């Protein structure tokens, strides 16, 4: 068991508060708060630093970035290292509230990718909002808040992914998304 750095169980009723008739873990608010701070920091790094401009240049054209003097491999390694640090922070903040396994990160990454795809990679804050929305829908499905259909709760992680696939299948591509 991962040690709890903040004892949320002392807040509310054993770490739960009631909002509009639904019991919500107090830890959820801390996780959302940390996520907003990390998203703001990531947005600032990507938009306002040489490192962020380098990452965007590499994403657009790695060969062109190398030609203008960007250390492509070193920048990529640093980006993956920072992503690992963010993942470690996520575990410290969220793990005491839910079990984490080796596959948990893969599932969370997939959900993040679905959120980004749903907003057509339109920006960090749009993807953040889409991810938050997907999380709320998944939680509502898991708790029966959207109805007590037989077996619905067992598919709570699959339904948002299927919905994203359906949305993508029927949404026309924009002109700049078409590859020659």
Description:
There is one protein chain. This protein has a two-stranded antiparallel sheet. The chain is built from seven helices and two strands, in the order ββααααααα. α1 (about 25-50) runs antiparallel to α4 (about 70-95), α5 (about 105-120) crosses α6 (about 125-145) and α5 (about 105-120) packs parallel to α7 (about 160-170). It has helices spanning about 25-50, 50-60, 60-65, 70-95, 105-120, 125-145, 160-170; strands spanning about 15-20, 20-25. The chain is mainly α. The protein has two domains: about 1-100, no CATH class; about 100-180, no CATH class. A hairpin with a 2-residue loop joins β1 (about 15-20) and β2. Helices cover about 60% and strands about 5% of the residues.
Tell me the strand percentage band.
under 5%
Taking Cα atoms only, what radius of gyration do you get, to the nearest Å? 19 Å
Mean pLDDT: 77
Helix tally? 7
Distance between the termini: 51 Å
Strand order of the largest sheet: 1-2
Task: Report the major sheet.
Answer: 2 strands, antiparallel
Which structural class best describes the helix and strand composition? Answer: mainly alpha
State the low-pLDDT regions, or none.
Answer: none
| Helical residue percent band | 55-70%
Shape: globular
Record field, number of beta strands: 2
* Order of helical and strand elements: EEHHHHHHH
Number of structural units classed as domains: 2
């Amino acid at each position: 068991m991962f040690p709890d750095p903040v004892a949320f169980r002392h807040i509310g009723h054993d770490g739960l508060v009631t909002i509009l008739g639904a019991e919500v873990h107090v830890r959820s608010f801390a996780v959302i708060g940390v996520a907003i701070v990390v998203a703001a920091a990531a947005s600032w790094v990507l938009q306002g630093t040489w490192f962020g401009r380098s990452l965007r240049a590499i994403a657009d054209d790695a060969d062109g970035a190398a030609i203008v003097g960007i250390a492509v491999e070193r920048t990529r390694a640093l980006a993956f290292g920072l992503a690992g640090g963010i993942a470690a922070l996520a575990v410290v903040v969220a793990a005491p509230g839910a079990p984490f396994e080796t596959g948990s990160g893969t599932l969370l990454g997939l959900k993040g990718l679905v959120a980004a795809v749903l907003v057509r990679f339109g920006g960090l804050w749009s993807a953040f909002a889409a991810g938050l929305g997907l999380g709320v829908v998944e939680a509502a499905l898991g708790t029966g808040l959207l109805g007590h259909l037989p077996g619905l709760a067992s598919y709570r992680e699959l339904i948002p992914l299927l919905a994203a696939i359906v949305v993508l299948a029927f949404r026309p591509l924009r002109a700049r998304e078409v590859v020659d």
